[in-house]
Specification:
Number of helices of chain A: 4
Largest sheet of chain A: 7 strands, mixed
CATH superfamily of the largest domain in chain A: Nucleoside Triphosphate Pyrophosphohydrolase
Oligomer: homodimer
CATH topology of the largest domain in chain A: Nucleoside Triphosphate Pyrophosphohydrolase
Distance between the termini of chain A: 49 Å
Radius of gyration of chain A: 19 Å
Chain lengths: ~220, ~220
Amino acid sequence: MVFPRGIVSLAVDCVVFGFTGERLRLLLIRRAVAPFAGMWALPGGFVEAGETLRAAAGRELSEESGVALAAVEEIGAFDALDRDPRGRVVSVAFLGLVRPEDCVLASRCDAAEARWFDLDAVPALAFDHGAILRRGRDRLRDALWSGPLGLRLLGDAFTLTDAQRLYETIGGAPLDVRNFRKRLLATGLVVPLAARQRGVAHRAARYYACRPSPSG
Amino acid sequence: MVFPRGIVSLAVDCVVFGFTGERLRLLLIRRAVAPFAGMWALPGGFVEAGETLRAAAGRELSEESGVALAAVEEIGAFDALDRDPRGRVVSVAFLGLVRPEDCVLASRCDAAEARWFDLDAVPALAFDHGAILRRGRDRLRDALWSGPLGLRLLGDAFTLTDAQRLYETIGGAPLDVRNFRKRLLATGLVVPLAARQRGVAHRAARYYACRPSPSG
DNA sequence: TCAAAAGTGTTCTTGATACACCCATGC
DNA sequence: GCATGGGTGTATCAAGAACACTTTTGA
């Protein structure tokens, strides 16, 4: 491969997770154009001169999949020399967390299709997106208990059982009901709401919400 | 400011810390060329097409200060639109840790001078390097007990008292002697050597070394 | 009255903290 | 023999882990 001297292109890629109540899902787009045309890939693309990396991530995500989301967290730069056959492209990856049911998928631009995949049934990905995905998963796991990050995968109102399913899915291990509740409540990240479940064939669970962050 | 469309330049910057046994020091270069000519700045510069970010960081560091070091850890991308008056430049920052006494400072290229500064006497810095430095400090603090990172600031052989001074300096708080020793030894990151201090006017301390990492 | 999930406290274990004295060496 | 820093153990406290039964609701 030959590198045009003095030119390094900058791109962003988004690892966007969703949670269905049962499983973790990953948002992918099918590439419409070369390279890797027809393959599945993380949403992403080149950064334009007048936008920040987060803005670029949000724009590409929205363009390619219809998902509107401010990128949540930077997970690192990917810079292998041969990661893009077009030449020298460095990509900064972001982690995004949404509820799939809040999203209306729509593909435009260089995406032929946008879809959610079960995280344990992800196809082979274009570029080095497999490695980026792994870093995204790791980051999500590590950040689970150090902030409200994971709770973004739940809606505005959720039961503690919902939250527990989520934490178990991300952590990959079952958790004790009582310890989980004590621990999550002790973080102060969630607050109880007045409302409860209606019309369930068992005792109605109380709803909780993610506490508004202290910084506004 | 006007951005030439479609062009984003990519740079790297290095937050290089050293430890003298007493104080944390930061490696800075004085800029020889515009912008910010004459001001102090973190070593760094533009990435060339055929090199990885780490390689670029190592090269710039060596060119501008004479310090040879494989960059240790990526600490994030800095991408404010107006961070560089020359136009749109995104910089990926790296953390580096060395022993100042192992380094022969030499400035070349666009550095007029390279110097170590006490971390609590750092001058105003060019670009957004003040913010980068803050992130570097935070990262060092956070990573202290989660890996061998901090120990790179010490030599091949060090006493536990040396290590304690270092951890106290980085953490900003005094530590209990016995608890520190237990904790550090329990991490398994250090191994005792046969050698002891010679010629000190008190009981000779045992030397320790950073244990070779399991991955080679 | 049964099925299905919500909800709740206590004991035990483990890791972190607080704390004070004797040891080796050079001068 | 004294000044200087090296080196060690135990009791206490707090956080995390293990563990089983009662409550509510709709069908």
